[in-house]
Design brief:
Number of helices: 15
CATH topology of the largest domain: Actin, Chain A, domain 4
CATH class of the largest domain: Alpha Beta
Structural class: alpha+beta
Number of strands: 23
Helix content: 25-40%
CATH superfamily of the largest domain: ATPase, substrate binding domain, subdomain 4
Number of domains: 4
Length: about 575
């Protein structure tokens, strides 16, 4: 569908002006001369946590301030505060208006594409923006999956590995997809904000400005009106050079000095543009190498390479990818890379409205999800990249005798140490019958729906049927900063044996029970010494000390066995004297 400017795509720019809010291309064209009131790049920080150091590195021209709680807000040049959700709602409202004008009827719901890395807080923030725009969320669909569907995958009984190369306006995403018949799932995803169409534009604008400064001794970057004209012209020229070998940029009266007005005229070749921006393309290929190495794959293991995003239409991008993979990228003449996700969402919309669709779509979990066990260890229940929806069940037990309460903490992240991950929820199961530790059986059930929303149920397995289980919904996985999201996705080194978790504590427990069993053989002082050694080892483990190892448990066990044999012999000698 075409927007009011006659374009099939709409830049996600919003500008607050004296005439009201501008959205899309009109907002982008005045961004340089109205920087404090023009907002873009919102999707990357939507639903994330305010972190001044991280946000300062983004170097946005508008002012970012703390919002309610840990959220982020924007303060425009006039001092007015805008939530990120309200800014997004302007773009969504424009899309709603475009659809209604095209269809001639009211639109009440929509299928929305999201990056694979979006957590629950980001999904919730996006849903709020949809609600503010008068739309219901029919489904949230991972963008690489939508692209694969649009390119025709998931409709035939074939098994393939796909690599989705998404080079958008302000970021770059790589997603590894597995197609098994009619099922499509994301198995790996990496992201960077350091490569995108915006970065290509900046390198091109800097080249043009440097060339003009060398010729005329005038730096256009010091003149807001002049640099806005140059930015707009560079964007047009960059697009033109995707289909032609040479393009002329002609900007009369762009500057002036004592000698009179100055004009910018520069004939730029495609080859020149490619040489300027090649480092960015090479950086994207380095990321592909890292992804393949991480998954122990070679280029031969990738069956098809799919292009997504407007910047991916640049011919040099395809050339470099084909040289790296030794095969052509997958192309369909009727589908443009910057429209392919929208087309895939259309197919998902058909599924949401119960119309026939031939592919079954599965999103995936971006992080490990698990519960905290003894020693601060996260026991993973839902591994990273698990296809959604999913349901898992696990069992817990008590760690001390006569324990009547159990605290259950749910975490997300890829570290084995729960404190290094993000806590999603906390619940308590109380009034358990008193018993020896290890005897109670607590059933934990985690359910994640297709949109990634989590619910957790806990119940005493031996409780009577009429006793209601505890159930909570994780409506918000917590506001994460962009860097925190990246950090949580990193695989972590496994912990030392001191904090491996249940097996270690089970050995301690067995040793402790054995000491209680030897109370008629060992005297109180000897038993107290061994019990103290066991307790000291437990404390070391809970502190994460590398000294707490299974080898130390074995040492205590051997010493105990020797002491039992020695004491038994002495007792027998006394009995038969």
């Amino acid at each position: 569908m075409e927007n009011i400017e006659g374009e099939r795509t709409t830049p996600t720019y919003v500008a607050n002006t004296d005439e009201g809010f501008l959205v899309g291309i009109t907002a982008r064209k005045q961004a340089v001369r109205n920087p404090e009131n023009t907002f873009f790049g919102i999707r990357a920080i939507l639903g994330t946590k305010y972190d001044k150091e991280i946000l300062d590195r983004l170097a946005m021209p508008y002012k970012i301030t703390p919002g309610a709680g840990t959220s982020i807000s924007i303060q425009d040049g006039g001092g007015q505060i805008h939530t990120l959700e309200s800014v997004c709602s302007h773009v969504i409202s424009r899309m709603k208006e475009t659809a209604e004008n095209t269809l001639g009827e009211k639109v009440e719901s929509a299928v929305v594409g999201i990056p694979p890395s979006y957590d629950d807080a980001q999904k919730e923030a996006l849903s709020k923006s949809m609600t503010a725009s008068g739309l219901k969320v029919a489904a949230l669909v991972s963008e690489p999956i939508a692209a694969a569907m649009a390119y025709g995958f998931g409709r035939e009984p074939v098994n393939k590995n796909l690599l989705v190369y998404d080079l958008g306006g302000r970021c770059f995403d790589l997603s590894l997809l597995k197609v098994s018949g009619s099922t499509i799932e994301v198995t790996e995803h990496i992201h960077t904000d350091e490569v995108g169409g915006h970065h290509f534009d900046k390198l091109f604008v800097d080249y043009l400005a440097d060339d003009f400064q060398q010729k005329e001794n005038i730096d256009l970057r010091q003149n807001i009106a002049a640099i806005q004209k140059l930015v707009n012209a560079a964007e047009v020229s960059k697009c033109e050079l995707s289909t032609s070998n040479v393009n002329e940029i002609n900007l009369p009266f762009i500057a002036g000095d004592a000698s009179g007005p100055k004009h910018l005229v520069n004939k730029v070749s495609r080859t020149k543009l490619e040489s300027i921006t090649l480092p960015l393309i090479n950086k994207s290929i380095d990321m592909m190498k890292a992804l393949l190495e991480k998954k122990s794959l070679s280029t031969r293991d990738i069956d098809e390479l799919l292009l997504v995003g407007g910047q991916a239409k640049m011919p040099r991008v395809s050339e470099e990818l084909e040289a790296f993979f030794g095969k052509p990228v997958f192309k369909t003449p009727s589908i443009s890379p910057d429209e392919v996700v929208a087309l895939g969402l259309l197919l998902c919309g058909a599924e949401a409205s119960q119309q026939k669709v031939e592919a079954l779509v599965y999103d995936n979990t971006p992080f490990d999800i698990g519960i905290e066990t003894r020693g601060g260890v996260m026991s993973v229940l839902v591994p990273r990249n698990t296809s959604l929806p999913c349901n898992v069940t696990a069992f817990l037990t008590t760690t001390t005798d006569n324990q009547t309460d159990i605290d259950i903490r749910l975490f997300q992240g890829n570290s084995s140490i729960s404190s290094k991950n993000l806590q999603l929820a906390k619940m308590a199961l109380q009034a358990l019958p008193r018993s020896l530790k290890g005897e109670p059986k607590i059933e934990i059930s985690i359910d994640i729906n297709k949109d990634g929303l989590i619910s957790i149920i806990a119940k005493d397995y031996f409780a009577p049927p009429e006793q209601e289980p505890i159930k909570i919904g994780v409506q918000n996985m917590g506001n994460l900063s962009p860097d925190q999201i990246t950090e949580l996705q990193k695989p972590q080194q496994p912990p030392t044996t001191s904090v491996i978790g249940n097996e270690f504590y089970e050995e301690l427990y067995t040793l402790e029970r054995a000491l209680h069993g030897y109370r008629k053989i060992l005297n109180d002082d000897d038993r107290a010494d061994f019990l103290k050694a066991v307790e000291d080892l437990r404390l070391e483990a809970e502190k994460g000390s590398p000294e707490a190892t299974s080898a130390k448990i074995e040492t205590i066990r051997v010493d105990l066995a020797k002491k039992v044999v020695e004491t038994t012999r002495e007792n027998n000698k006394k009995r038969f004297k």
